[in-house]
Each structure stands twice: as C-alpha cells, then as structure tokens.
Amino acid sequence: MSPWLVVGLGNPGPQYAGNRHNVGQMVLDVLARRMNGTFTSHKARAQVLDGRLGTLAGGAPGPRVILAKPGSYMNVSGGPVGALAKFYAVGPAQLLVVHDELDLPPETLRLKQGGGEGGHNGLRSISAALGTKDYVRLRVGVGRPPGRMDPADYVLRDFSAAERAELGVTLEEAADAVEEVVTLGLDKAQMRLHTA
Predict the structure, then answer these.
(1) Strands, E, within the chain: which ranges?
(2) Which residues form a coiled coil (predicted)?
(3) Cα-atom radius of gyration of the chain, to the nearest Å?
(4) What's the rounded Cα separation, in Å, for the pair 126 and 132?
(5) Does 88 count as an annotated binding residue?
(6) pLDDT tens for the chain, residues 1 to 196
C-alpha cells in the first residue's frame, strides 16, 4: 500500500513564513508536531517528514504519511511534488495538497478531489507536472483582499492580528481534516468537515 503524500504549499524562507500564501505549510507544522517528527531535506527539493499519522479503529497506528514542503516558490511547486510522487510511488488518489483559498472566507475549510485550480498557480503547476487534476485538495480560506488590493499582494502579506487570534484553531481543524482523510477516507472526512 503506497503512503499518503501530504503537501503544504507556500514559499520558502523566513520572510514568507507568516504569509496567507503559506497557510498550507503552517498546517503541516501542526501535523509534524502530532507525528513527533522534524522535517529533513529531500533530493526532490523539499523538506519531508516520513511517519505515521493518527490512529485506526482498534487503536492501531495510522497509515504511513509523508509530509512535504516544496523548496521551490509556490508557482513552480509542480517540480518537487511530481518528483516526490514518483519517488514514493504515490498516485493522485493518495496525494493531498493543502493550500490557501481566496474564494473561501477565513476559518473555512473545504475538501475536494479534482476540479479546477481557481487561478491558483501552485495548483496549476502541480496539475501540469502530474498530468492530472485528480488529486485531493484541502482548501483553507483566507478571504478576498479588501478594496482594490491586488490578490497577489494580499496573499503575500502576513495574517492580521485579528486573523492570527483565530488562526491556531483553524490550523488544528485543518490538521484534523488531513488526519481524517488518511485514516477514514475522503468521503467520510468530507461528510464530517462539511456538515459540522
């Protein structure tokens, strides 16, 4: 059984760490704490953590999961993600990409498999590298920019103080959603998340 590959999108470097665009990587940091592990460098230009996530029915350890933060900029995430999927022999159904979503209000989470990229260049790059859009996405809402602000500028800004006050809860809920996808399956995880 191939492992799950869970990718958190974002840009590399400390100057981007608090940006809205990096919320996917923030979710992976929560998951890494749950797995009691640390990220290490991988030849596919990524930071990875290979371990088990969650608990299965009966108390057995959860499935093998590779958490991955591409070391490339967001818009060219496809190279590292494609290389990791090949290295770990992971097909689209076992790939979960966590990313920021302008079209969802802050604190809103949505799971889906396949579909369009909604103008998200990171997803577009991954779809091109994989030759398919049929992978799982966890969309983490960051809301639309205020007034006439360029969306590109908005996602490259840090969360506001008010947003940060709620962000910890959202990140934990997003990590819960990832854990449920890998332990319960996408359908059950969607039902729990979307009807909560």
Answers:
(1) 4-8, 40-42, 46-52, 64-70, 95-101, 109-113, 136-141
(2) none
(3) 16
(4) 8
(5) no
(6) 789 999 999 999 999 999 999 999 999 999 999 999 999 999 999 999 999 999 887 888 899 999 999 999 999 999 999 999 999 999 999 999 999 999 999 999 999 999 988 889 999 999 999 999 999 999 999 999 999 999 999 999 999 998 999 999 999 999 999 999 999 999 999 999 998 6
- Whether 21 sits among the annotated catalytic residues: the reply is yes
Contacts of 8 (CB under 8 A, 6+ apart): 24, 25, 26, 27, 28, 67, 68, 69, 98
3-state secondary structure of 103: coil
CATH number at residue 51: 3.40.50.1470
- The reply to whether 121 sits in an annotated binding site is yes
Count CB atoms within 10 A of the CB of residue 1.
6
91 vs 85: CA distance, rounded Å: 7
User: What residue numbers bound the domain in which 144 lies?
Assistant: 4-194
